[in-house]
Structures are given as structure tokens and as C-alpha cells.
Specification:
Elements: H1 26-41, E1 51-54, H2 58-69, E2 74-77, H3 83-89, E3 92-95, H4 108-111, E4 118-121, H5 130-138, E5 144-147, E6 161-163, H6 172-190
Parallel strand pairs: 1-2, 1-3, 3-4, 4-5, 5-6
Helix pairs in contact: 1-2
Amino acid sequence: LDHLQFTKPIRVLSLQGADVLTKVRAVSEWVMWAAITAKRRFFEDIDECGVGIIGNGRIAKHVMANFISFGASVAIIDKSGDPKQLIKDNGIIILCIPRERNIGFFSKELIDLCHGKIIINPSRPDIIDQKYMLLALKHGKVRLLVDDFQKSWPLTVPSNLISTDHIAGSTVGSRNKVNIWLAKEAKKILNVNYAVYLEQKSV
């Protein structure tokens, strides 16, 4: 909800903690795409290096399961863990932490440990010190960064930055699951008696 601004009180339906999200795996699938794309750039397999995940929520656990199915060695920590050791021990670092209380978390100090590392960020752009990250990428201090926040970077970026335009969670299937849940929740709140039909068009 960090993008919302209201001038008067309004009821907000939040997906945070909703059961429907256990069935939505679009972001974790995007992370796998990012990892495969990154490793193929260097003609390497997913299981050739360790995978370190910072975060211990729903998406992090989905990501961990995906990598394990590819035969990768996976380490996962929450905010109480040691990110420095995690970075040192693994070749792929994935940031799966919420924006709240984590702005600037991936700081210069952590970026300096990422020589030769692949970093994947599906979370939010400002959990990383983007200004310093850009310098680290330009000077080859970081092997590769893949994120989903294309508009947060300058128009011209180093070749070792791959950035998509906020598409990680945007699939037809995930949107339909969420839309159906929202319609049902709105019906409960409004106490209406009409049926809501959502149609998935084939593409």
C-alpha cells in the first residue's frame, strides 16, 4: 500500500495475509526466469552455485521450493540472520523482503561484498542503494543485477543490469485469482446479493 494517498477516509481491501496468495506464484516464477536468464548469459546451470534468499515470507518460500526442484543448494534467512555471510557463501542472492522498514537495506556495505554475484530483486527498488549499485555495476563490482523496476533506473544502464517493467506479479492467472478474491470480499463488505462474474479470455 505504499503507493496510495487519500484525501478522505476510504475502505481499503488489502491482500496482505490473504489465503488466496498461497495460490499465486507469479513472482516466484519471475525469479526463476531471472535466475535462468542470468545463468544462461554465462553458460552456467542453476545448480552450479548456491542460492541465498534474504526474507522468509510467502514469496521467499515459493522461491526456495523452485530452486530446490532445480537441484540447487539453497540458504534462507530472515532479517535476524547474517546477510554478509549469506552473500559470501552463495553465488545468487535474492531479495524477498517487504519495503516497510527496509528502505536502503541492501546498502553500500552489502553491495561491496557482491563481487562476482548475481543479485535478483523482486521486492521494491528502494530497498537497494540504487545510486551506489549503479556505480558497482558500471565498475564490474557486481556480476549482474536483475530486477523488476525498469522505470526507477536511468534510460541508459550498464549491460549487466536486466530490468523488467513491473511485470513480476502480472500474469493472467494471478490477476484472475486475485480479482475473484477481491470480488468476493467486496460482496461481503457491501452486503449485496448479486452475482459477480469474472471471465478469463483465452490469449
